[in-house]
Amino acid sequence: MPSRKKTAMFASAFFTCVCSFAIICVVLATQHWMSSEVRFSGTNSSVTVSLTYGLFSGTCEQFVDAGLQVSERTFQVADNLSNTKAKSMITAIIVILILSLLSSLLSSGFTCTNAVSNPYQTFLGPTGVYTWNGLCDIFIVIAMILFPVNIEENGLSVELARGCFSFLQTHSKSEHTYGYSYWIMLLIIFLNTASIIIIYFYDHARYSKKKEQEKPIENAPKDVILF
């Protein structure tokens, strides 16, 4: 059975890993990644399309300068995209987040195992926790970089607006606001880092104690006589 200290440390790390896993699920499930106001100008009038969307679905509504408003409608992101690059990048982000979800799940399993037992394999100990939490952080950072690139380089919001409403005219400007579904990914990075720090302190203390117990005999008191 593991010591009380080990159980407490790994149980704390398990809690942060479970929280990280839950937040990744929220990130994937919610549609508040982006809110955009996309303006299209024509000869006689201008139209503004208001969008709120995530990786899978969203809502859109149209406002005409004359005061006319088209009722809000729901759309599927994949169905509204005709730009292959934009669609491919959305797919890549989803795959990366699923990989981060699996990494977080494995990290939770490793910390739980260490909280209740002493695994024989080295990789099942702190090394495995470092690996899976580190990979999860890397995946989250990549996703946080790719999404803004898709907005700015591939005109994701403009593409979705055109998919919502036909016969839109020339795109003139866009205003973007990143929602909580995007920003809470920073919390995932924080939680994974916290898990790594907790296990590092435990591992460092264990290593120091082991070194103390393995001090060479020359450090023994000089007045000790061996027969």
Could you list some keywords that capture this structure?
227 residues; alpha+beta; five-stranded antiparallel sheet; 7 helices
**Share of β-strand residues:** 15-25%
What is the percent of helical residues?
55-70%
Task: State mean pLDDT (0 to 100 scale).
Answer: 86
Terminal CA distance: 38 Å
Biggest sheet details: 5 strands, antiparallel
The number of distinct β-strands equals 5
| Cα radius of gyration in angstroms | 26 Å
Order of helices and strands: HEEEEHHHHEHH
User: What's the arrangement of strands in the largest beta sheet?
Assistant: 4-3-2-1-5
Principal-axis shape equals rod-shaped
Note poorly predicted spans: none
Helix/strand class = alpha+beta
- Tally the helices: what do you get? 7
Question: Can you put this structure into words, describing what you see?
Answer:
The chain is α+β, with helices and mostly antiparallel strands. Helix content is 59%, strand content 18%. It has helices spanning 4-29, 77-80, 84-116, 126-153, 156-164, 180-183, 185-213, and strands at residues 34-41, 46-53, 57-64, 69-76, 170-178. Strands 4-3-2-1-5 form a 5-stranded antiparallel beta sheet. Strand 2 (46-53) and strand 3 (57-64) form a beta hairpin.
Chain-wise SSE layout:
Layout: H1 4-29, E1 34-41, E2 46-53, E3 57-64, E4 69-76, H2 77-80, H3 84-116, H4 126-153, H5 156-164, E5 170-178, H6 180-183, H7 185-213
Antiparallel strand pairs: 1-2, 1-5, 2-3, 3-4
